Amino acid sequence: MSDAPRHWDAADRALFATVGHHVQSRTDAGDFPPNAPDPAALTGPLYRFLLGHRAARDSSHARLSGWLASACMGGHHLWQDLGLQERAQVSRLMQLAFPALHDGNVRNLRWKRHLFLSLGDALGRPGLRPPKCDDCGDFAVCMGADAAPAQTTVTLPPLIALGD
Asked: Most CB atoms within 10 A, among 19, 25, 149, 152?
């Protein structure tokens, strides 16, 4: 497994190692692509998208791109599928390794949502959603009201005034 970028501090290098160990273990167990099915066929496009936005063109950033792409196909919050303790740790990795994507998250969206919206825009598929999120109990929390299924509008007949 590649080491974290040398210029990262010890805490950031530990985050990198934690993610690498966790995602590789889950991949080996068949929980994440490439060892798990990818019915939406989005792992490769997301990986290439992340590669195009990495801070440095080195093996560490390429490895992290792959880990993120695989973990984004998981059925939990991204920080959980990366083996981290909280969302802020994903934010830190994004800031270090993908600063343009980090800075582009001006609405402070959940990272999985932000990545898929950004990928969708790049692919000409606006509103692209992460696989497995539609079935999650936290859908409204993560995706927000603007991503909720469209509601049907009911048109009522005009009122009939008495005496007409």
From this structure: 19
State how far the Cα of 81 lies from the Cα of 72, in Å rounded to an integer. 8
CA 70 – CA 33 distance, rounded (Å): 5
Under DSSP, the state recorded for 148 is: S
User: How do residues 100-113 score in pLDDT, each as one tens digit?
Assistant: 999 999 999 999 99
Residue length, the chain?
164
Q: Is the pLDDT of residue 123 over 90?
A: yes
pTM of the entire predicted model: 0.81
Mean pLDDT of 58-67: 97
User: 127: alpha, beta or left, given left = phi > 0 and alpha = psi -120 to 50?
Assistant: left
* Alpha helices (runs of H) in the chain, residue ranges in sequence order: 10-28, 43-52, 59-71, 78-81, 87-97, 99-104, 111-123, 139-143
Alpha-carbon gap, residue 103 to 20, rounded angstroms: 24
- Using one digit for the tens of pLDDT, what is the confidence trace for 79-99? 999 999 999 999 999 999 999
Residue type (1 letter), 79: W
